[in-house]
Design a protein that fits this description.
11 helices, two-stranded antiparallel ribbon, single chain, 11 strands, Rossmann fold, 7-stranded parallel beta sheet, binds NADP nicotinamide-adenine-dinucleotide phosphate, globular, alpha/beta
Length: 318
């Protein structure tokens, strides 16, 4: 079993005073740890969450531990494009800079369902909501450069429970074929990776970097539609070392590296992996492999087509 990679301690001690960082889905799991660590280092962290009261409780808990931490909760429902637009407007009305956008929020293997705008839930929340959000914040990211966009993808963009990751342009929302929650998750996580790649290409020369990450298999609420949380937290946890399940603090390390690492701008567009299980020998396990084993993740035609389709679907093409 590959060892969990930990972010360089010097990066986790770096003073981030004066930086403004948005973390979506920051009230739980990897996002919560990411928000806490960055606020502890002095950044002003905006927790973009659909359950604002929960985020406010998290802020109280963080400030109790780190009294000088500066965090703010703002409402964002990625399953509703009107909410994404409203969040972006409120953020831009009240902040004049954005150093890092962490597109962290996500859902996995959800029962069949649609977002408010009629998109398949996982494609809509994980990809399209973040696609629109990022676009609406691009100008402020450019004026705040050097700046970064970090997108949470997954090794499941390659293969999720036996389903190969692909972008099903003929039926993105599972309207013709039978819904499959793992196929939909793989599609959404491949879209996340391709989004970061597409951003890197279009942001060349702006000093805004964009990367995607796989955090490892992390003990969070993400699994709740697949396995009851008590099974994960009480039955699987004692054998987590054997099965490769890591704790949220460990799972946040890849995101933190992507936010803080000095190597990141030179690798813009790359896929950073904490602990991928690869079929491709070129992507070494346990490193920061920067390479996806999925051939579709390297297909520029698919990436460009997804970009255009995403602009259409989110109303950016009009
Ligand atoms: N855990 C893993 O093993 C693993 C592996 C690979 C990749 N990832 C990725 O890591 C990211 C973080 O997941 P996690 O493991 O930390 O899971 P988590 O604990 O379930 O956190 C997910 C976060 O996303 C939020 N969210 C869900 N739907 C949303 C919506 N419509 N609008 C706004 N926020 C929404 C959740 O809010 P609520 O609390 O309101 O539901 C929660 O804050 C995800 O993108 C996931 O795909 C995780």
């Amino acid at each position: 079993m590959a060892k969990t990679l930990m972010c360089d301690p010097s990066l986790l001690a770096r003073d981030l005073s004066g930086q403004t960082i948005i973390v979506t889905g920051a009230n739980s799991g990897i996002g919560l740890i990411t928000a806490e660590q960055l606020a502890k280092q002095g950044a002003h962290v905006v927790m973009a969450c659909r359950r604002v009261e929960e985020a406010e409780q998290c802020i109280q808990d963080i400030v109790a531990k780190h009294p000088s931490a500066k965090l703010e909760a703002m409402r964002l429902d990625l399953g509703d494009l009107a909410s994404v637009r409203s969040f972006a407007k409120s953020f831009l009305d009240s902040h004049d800079k954005l150093d890092v956008l962490v597109n962290n929020a996500g859902v996995m293997n959800t029962p069949e369902g649609k977002t408010k705008d009629g998109f398949e839930m996982q494609f809509g929340v994980n990809h399209l909501g973040h696609f629109l959000l990022t676009d609406l914040l691009l100008d402020v990211l450019k004026t705040s450069a050097p700046s970064r966009i970090v997108v949470l993808s997954s090794c499941y963009h390659d293969q999720a429970m036996g389903r190969d990751g692909d972008i099903h342009f003929d039926d993105l929302n599972f309207e013709s074929k039978t819904y499959d929650g793992w196929e939909a998750y793989a599609q959404s996580k491949l879209a996340n990776l391709l989004h970061a790649k597409g951003l890197a290409k279009r942001l060349e020369g702006t000093n805004v970097s964009a990367v995607s990450v796989h955090p490892g298999w992390v003990r969070t609420n993400l699994i709740k539609n697949s396995v009851p949380l008590w099974v994960q937290n009480y039955v699987m946890r004692p054998v987590s070392g054997l099965i490769g399940l890591i704790e949220p603090w460990e799972g946040a390390q890849t995101t933190l590296h992507a936010v803080l690492g000095d190597d990141v701008p030179a690798n813009t567009g790359a896929y950073y992996s904490q602990k991928g299980i690869y079929r491709d020998k070129a992507a070494k396990a346990g490193g920061w492999p920067l390479h996806s084993p999925n051939p579709v993740a390297h297909d520029d035609v698919v990436a460009d087509k997804l970009w255009d389709v995403s602009r259409e679907l989110t109303g950016l093409a009009n």
